[in-house]
Structure formats: structure tokens, C-alpha cells
Design a protein that fits this description.
The complex is a heterodimer. Chain A is about 70% helix and about 0% strand. Chain A has nine helices and two strands. Chain A has a two-stranded antiparallel ribbon with strand order 1-2. The radius of gyration of chain A is 18 Å and the shape is globular. Chain B contains four helices and seven strands; from the N terminus they run αβββββαββαα. Chain B is extended. Classes of the chains: A mainly alpha, B alpha+beta. The interface between A and B is medium-sized, with 30 and 26 residues.
């Protein structure tokens, strides 16, 4: 069981997709201007990641090595299209806010990367832990990033007024520039924290 | 050689099977979700028509030259206005606007942005009441963007940092006069 827990924790910190592996940055930069958007993107990506890791770890034996990448992509596309329709039908506001970035989950290298690195080489049970760990790891960084951007950009957190009506919005934080600035500072800070904790333990 | 053919066949078969299963699954998903998606679209359109045609009781869809017009009527079946949805290129993608007009008076009643991908906090302010207000009672003619409080009915106040979005909306709305008068030519 410890083994499974380690796989899960891996995604949260040690191999966190965003600030350790630095993958899946397109949605990370694009949609994290409000907490709601960041969280929704984390969940949508997580759903695709978990479903495709399960399917791929189940059928990996029958996939010939030469067509493994196209097969993975086909499976991922299926789940992404499902997500696109599902959000459009039941969460139209979120679908409008994320718009083009839902179909773009297909090319999020976090998803293909985990199939190649993990699901195609491990049993399904382990793949589920890996996928859930990566999802939580991806989502918490997205939410942290969007919280900072929304707070300075709109003066709100998840739509709740924090700085009061007198606050002048920092438009740069909502624009792509703000995404790069915040991500750079956040990744630097988390890695600093990681090194500090690591050296204290060692 | 035979072995190679065999392996190519295997690759093709694998991809075909995965693709077929995916397509089958998605066909089911489509059947399940499409009524909901269409319903949301219809509701958004209806809300937009309500917004741009004041004193509306009911509306009818009429098609002229493949273009859909929404004719709004009050309780006494008098035509209160004609709404039409127009599209054009914005700063970050297509902007779709529902425009309510009064063809008899030759003026715009109100506008409502149906879809856009403009920058949040800047271009996205085209959806705000304060900006839309300037289009109320604007005449059927080329509108003009000004950097101060509008004084004439055809003047639209610019939004700081959103020049292209405002320009796009102005261009889309400026076309409505010709399109509406072509089929509902009343007075000027």
C-alpha cells in the first residue's frame, strides 16, 4: 500500500507536472485568470487523464509498439470530445469560459506523457493512483496560480470581493503577461521551498 | 516480406478497432448531449431577443434570402422591432451580436453580445451595459467612435485598452441598417 501512496504523492510534489516536470503549460498559462476557470480546467484535464490511463493500462498488451502513440492519441481524443460535449450540455458557463482550451486538452503533453511514461508500463491499479495524483498536483498549482492572478487582476477570489470596490484592477495579471510573471515566480518559490526542505532533511 | 505485411495489417487493424470504438462511444455521447446543447443555445438566443426588443410579447422567425430575422410583436400584434444576429471578426476571434432595430424609425434599439473571445477585463467590456447604452437609438448609418462622452446619437464612446474590440463591434453594428432596410424598408 505504501507503494501506491508514493505513486499518488509523486504527482502532488516530487514530480508535480507544472513546477517540477514543467509540462502542460498551455492551459496553465491560458485559462488561469480566475479560480473557477483554473479549477474547471484541472478537473477537465484530470477526467481525461484518469479515463485514458485506465483504458490504456487495460489494453496495453494488445497495442503494437509501432502504433502506440497514435493509439494513445485516439483514446485521448475520444475522452476529450466527450468532455467537450458534456460541459457544453450541463455546464454551459464553464464551457463558454474555457472555450477552445477544452479541445486543446488533446495536445496537453501531461496526458500523453503519463500514458507513455506510466500507464503503458504499469498495471491498472497503479495507473489510477498515478492519474489521480497527477490530477490533484496539476489542479492545486492551477488553483494557486489563478488565485494570485484573480486577486491582483480583479481584486476578487472565486468571485468574492476581497479588496473592495476602490481597488483598481491590475489588467496585466489577467493577460498572458501576468500568467508568465506569476508562473515564473511561483515555480521559483516552490523549487526554493523544495530545496530548503530537502537540505534540512539531508 | 509476408511477416512485414502481417505486421502492417496488425497496425491498421489495431487503429481501426480503437477508432471504431471511440466513434461508437462518441455517437452515443452526441445523441445524449445535443438536445441539451441546442436548448442552451435557443435559450441564450431568446434571452438576447428579449433584451434587444423592448415591450416584446412574442417573436417570429422569418427568413429572407437565407438570413434569419426575428420579428418582435407586442400584445396587440403590432411590430415593435426586428432583431437580427450578425457576426464579424473581433480582436481574438469572432464576435456575434444580436441587434434589435426599429425599421420604421430607422434606428437601433439595443444590442446584445451573444458570443465573443475578447480579452477579459479589456475587450470583454463590450458586453457591459455602459458600452451597449451608446448604441441605443443610434441611427442606421456609419457609427463613429469618440474618446469623450457621446453627444450625437451616432457616437460611441471608446473603451480604454480595447480599441480593436470596440472597432469590431462598431463595424458589425454599422452593417445592420442596410440588411434590415432591404427587407423592411420603411421611412428613414
Amino acid at each position: 500500500m505504501k507503494n501506491y501512496l508514493d505513486i499518488f504523492k509523486n504527482g502532488l510534489w516530487n514530480e508535480n507536472p507544472i513546477f517540477k516536470l514543467i509540462i502542460g503549460l498551455c492551459p496553465t498559462l491560458a485559462v488561469t485568470n480566475t479560480v473557477v476557470n483554473g479549477f474547471a480546467m484541472g478537473m477537465a484535464t484530470g477526467f481525461v487523464l484518469i479515463s485514458s490511463e485506465i483504458v490504456i493500462s487495460l489494453i496495453k498488451k494488445w497495442i503494437p509498439n509501432d502504433v502506440r502513440i497514435p493509439s494513445f492519441i485516439l483514446i485521448i481524443v475520444t475522452f476529450v470530445t466527450f468532455t467537450d460535449y458534456f460541459l457544453g450540455a450541463f455546464f454551459p458557463d464553464i464551457a463558454d469560459a474555457l472555450a477552445l482550451f477544452i479541445p486543446l486538452i488533446v495536445v496537453n503533453c501531461l496526458i500523453l506523457g503519463r500514458q507513455e511514461a506510466f500507464a503503458s508500463q504499469n498495471p491498472t491499479r497503479k495507473a489510477i493512483f498515478d492519474a489521480v495524483g497527477m490530477t490533484v498536483g496539476f489542479t492545486w498549482v492551477l488553483v494557486a496560480l489563478s488565485a494570485i492572478r484573480e486577486l491582483f487582476g480583479f481584486g476578487t477570489l472565486a468571485g468574492v470581493e476581497i479588496f473592495g470596490a476602490g481597488y483598481t484592477d491590475m489588467i496585466i495579471m489577467i493577460l498572458p503577461g501576468g500568467a508568465f510573471l506569476t508562473l515564473g515566480v511561483l515555480v521559483g518559490f516552490l523549487n526554493f521551498l523544495d530545496r530548503k526542505v530537502g537540505s534540512d532533511n539531508g | 516480406m509476408a511477416e512485414k505485411n502481417n505486421s502492417i495489417a496488425k497496425l491498421v487493424i489495431t487503429l481501426t478497432i480503437i477508432g471504431a470504438f471511440g466513434a461508437l462511444f462518441l455517437a452515443g455521447v452526441y445523441e445524449w448531449t445535443i438536445p441539451h446543447i441546442l436548448e442552451h443555445e435557443a435559450r441564450a438566443r431568446e434571452q438576447a431577443i428579449m433584451e434587444v426588443l423592448p415591450d416584446l410579447d412574442y417573436y417570429e422567425e422569418v427568413t429572407h434570402n437565407d438570413k434569419i430575422f426575428y420579428e418582435g410583436y407586442d400584445e396587440n400584434d403590432n411590430l415593435v422591432g426586428v432583431a437580427v444576429s450578425l457576426k464579424g471578426g473581433g480582436y481574438a476571434g469572432e464576435i456575434e451580436i444580436m441587434i434589435g432595430t426599429d425599421p420604421q424609425e430607422g434606428k437601433i434599439l439595443n444590442i446584445y453580445v451573444l458570443n465573443h473571445q475578447e480579452t477579459p477585463g479589456l475587450g470583454a467590456r463590450i458586453t457591459e451595459e455602459q458600452f451597449r447604452e451608446d448604441f441605443k437609438d443610434a441611427p442606421f448609418s456609419e457609427l463613429e467612435i469618440v474618446q469623450r462622452t457621446p453627444e450625437e446619437p451616432y457616437e460611441i464612446e471608446a473603451i480604454a485598452g480595447a480599441t480593436m474590440s470596440v472597432e469590431a463591434v462598431k463595424n458589425i453594428v454599422s452593417d445592420v441598417g442596410d440588411i434590415v432596410t432591404e427587407h423592411y424598408g420603411g421611412g428613414n
